């Protein structure tokens, strides 16, 4: 009798390997099936926008269709699940009471977002959780003390003026329209480098910093696409994909940029040679604080911790501010009557704007209302997310079990017609004292709220006020209808084609 080929000695290992892989595949399939069933059961009480059984809402999310999101929010003004493929769902909330419930807890940041972002910013303050987060937050908070922020106003004024000089040149030699975002981004990078790292890079005039900025833009796109493409949630699949390769290359650019900042400071500390502006400083900058920080056992931050915090503050400290300032200028260009009121106010307070003080910034009430209204209409950070560590009950009695990823859609909250009357209309008076007093404290959250609110919010607001005030003194802004911005949802809300603003006819 003949032996079957499977029984020959050489075939056995292949046979066993095949059976092993099959069993693994089967186990994985059962796990995924059970996961889907569990999610379907947990999310059943919440109505879901129409979905495809396999792709879920992936296509809609990837399309960056903000109008569609607004339609969904109109229909589901409290919360709704969005499916990312067949086995993953995020629970979106856009209601102030729901937001309050989530932000008053201490659930960790969503593992997906953090995992995909961690090659970019490491485990810095944005990504940390638990006691280590508390320790870092306590140690880093003094870097944003009001007395330090006051000293930054002069630095900011100088950087904004450099940018406006560049705009003057562009407008005098070419057409009267400027793509402002890329200029503002470099200006914002210049400011964060000078304020938090006391580093003079001249990045606004020296184009060697462009690779860092370009890398940030592309990496954010890849992170976001990965987040909403369930196949790329697997590290192996992502790493083998062309996007994964590109991601690794870009990360090296970002890593190197941050490393140079740290090494330069360490060198100057070792050799005792102080940089020009270090000598002039009357305060410890952010880098001083990080490098000298000690935990309760007296140990310093590890090299990895230092790198993570520097890359976190470098990115968080300029990317979102740059987007916000460009959106404020865009909204003022779209609304000339509000623009003019702001200009009159700024002129009355600053005169020719040769210097700006802390108190003067506090007097700009109408300009502040316009800034707040822009932060509502186009929030630079459109959403934040948490993984529930224990079951959660909302004030209306609806519950979610532990393990669900909750996404607080700041965009959704700020565009919710159940919360804001005519949410698409730019109306700064929503932020007048009388109108603000009546508002739910969790209806407006551009910087989030609770213990994990934005540590740099006052820094951001000051920078925004300085930039807007000085721009209005020198430029009349007009909208460029031929190139409207194309909003793209990334970690930070940006325009894919930049923000084009024209120079109005008035001569400033
Ligand atoms: C207009 C500009 C800005 C906006 C809209 C913004 C928005 C936010 C939001 C919504 C959060 C909460 C994130 C979450 O819970 O997942 C946050 C956290 C944070 N922001 Fe900002 N931010 C801005 C500017 C800045 C600046 C200038 C810095 C630093 C200089 C900064 C540093 C941080 C850090 C480190 C955190 C994490 C805080 C923690 O978890 O303890 N941000 N920001």
From TrEMBL:
TM regions (residue ranges): 14-34
* Cofactor(s), by name: heme
Q: Which InterPro entries match?
A: Cyt_P450, Cyt_P450_CS, Cyt_P450_E_grp-I, Cyt_P450_sf, Cytochrome_P450_Monoox
Binding-site residues, heme: 454
- What is the membrane topology noted in the UniProt record heading this document? Single-pass membrane protein
Coiled-coil residues are none
Cite the entry's keywords alphabetically: Endoplasmic reticulum, Heme, Iron, Membrane, Metal-binding, Microsome, Monooxygenase, Oxidoreductase, Transmembrane, Transmembrane helix
Give the main location. endoplasmic reticulum
Its cellular-component GO annotations read: endoplasmic reticulum membrane
Q: Indicate yes or no for the key word Magnesium.
A: no
| Keyword Membrane on entry | yes
Q: Which residues form the signal peptide?
A: none
Where does it reside?
A: Endoplasmic reticulum membrane; Membrane; Microsome membrane
What GO molecular-function term can you cite, just one?
oxidoreductase activity, acting on paired donors, with incorporation or reduction of molecular oxygen
The family line of this record is: Belongs to the cytochrome P450 family.
* Name of the protein in question: Cytochrome P450 family 4 subfamily X member 1
What are the top taxonomic ranks of the organism? Eukaryota, Metazoa, Chordata, Craniata, Vertebrata
